[in-house]
Design brief:
Blueprint lengths: L3 E12 L2 E12 L3 E5 L6 H8 L7 E6 L2 E2 L3 H5 L2 E4 L11 H11 L4 H14 L15 H13 L5 E5 L7 H16 L3 E5 L3 H7 L2 E6 L2 E6 L1 H6 L7 H13 L23
Parallel strand pairs: 3-8, 3-9, 6-7, 7-8
Antiparallel strand pairs: 1-2, 1-4, 4-5, 9-10
């Protein structure tokens, strides 16, 4: 098995005349956390959607968990994906939603139930497991989405803003879960505006701006490049300003202040 969980060569995506991602190349080792940063509209979500085979690249190739992104049926069995707005069935209960996910992955109800109970309890949802998802808050929906993405123990999991909409206690549970995934031999591709999470958990950070990768390296290495105070926020602002001449929308630095959903314009 390859030592790399994700490799990409020249990934490019155009939407008409708009260049969303330009000639992106990645080489991400197995069992690591890759923090993917960028301003709104930088190309983070488009990159993730290409890597999980939901958006076809205009040019370039990529392999995830040893599978080409051109082979979507096989790839789906090897990866987990949490989009910023989890695709849930409002008319189902959390328990029914997760049973549905289990069946998609060929896991019987009997095998799935113990795992469902364990994960619902971990995310403090067990008492609400029989309520319809339509009655859930944004944070509760996000928790169900995270469980669904991890349920089948994928080799690589893609998390797009996993802590948005969560209270500090739930955000801490997500942080602890991400750290635990690597000990279980998973690779995590993490896109977030909360820089404290990336600084704490990421082995490597990539910064994308205007569709191009403008910086990449371990957090400590990137912080050493900063002209001012040695922190990840300074690095982020410097490298994104270098390309377009502005600081644009800054990232969050406090997990207690979740981004408001529905306002992101990332493509």
């Amino acid at each position: 098995m390859t030592d790399h969980a994700i490799t990409a060569d020249g990934l490019t995506k155009r939407f008409g005349d708009e260049l969303a991602v330009e000639d992106l190349s990645l080489s991400i080792p197995r069992e690591t956390v890759y923090g993917f940063l960028g301003p709104n509209g930088a190309g983070k979500t488009t990159t993730m959607r290409m890597l999980v085979a939901l958006t076809e690249p205009t040019a370039g190739t990529a392999d995830v968990a040893g599978v080409s992104i051109a082979n979507r049926p096989r790839l789906t069995r090897r990866i987990g994906y949490l989009p910023a707005d989890p695709p849930l069935f409002d008319e189902l209960t959390a328990w029914e939603q997760l049973r549905h996910v289990a069946r998609i992955h060929g896991i019987s109800d009997g095998q799935a139930d113990t795992r469902i109970e364990t994960l619902l309890d971990r995310f403090n949802l067990l008492a609400d497991a029989d309520r319809r998802i339509e009655s859930y808050s944004t944070g509760m929906r996000k928790k169900v989405g995270i469980i669904a993405a991890l349920f089948h123990d994928p080799d690589v999991v893609f998390l797009d803003e996993p802590t948005s909409g969560l209270d500090p206690r739930a955000a801490r549970t997500v942080r602890d879960t991400i750290a635990d995934l690597v000990t279980r031999e998973m690779t995590v591709f993490l896109s977030t505006h909360v820089l404290s999470i990336v600084d704490e958990l990421a082995d490597t950070v990539g910064v994308i701006n205007d569709g191009a990768l403008v910086a990449e390296g371990p957090p400590a290495e990137l912080k050493a490049r900063a002209d001012e105070s040695p922190d990840l926020e300074t690095v982020f602002l410097e490298v994104t300003a270098e390309r377009d001449g502005t600081t644009r929308d800054g990232p969050q630095t406090d997990a207690g202040g979740p981004e408001t959903e529905g306002t992101r314009t990332d493509v």
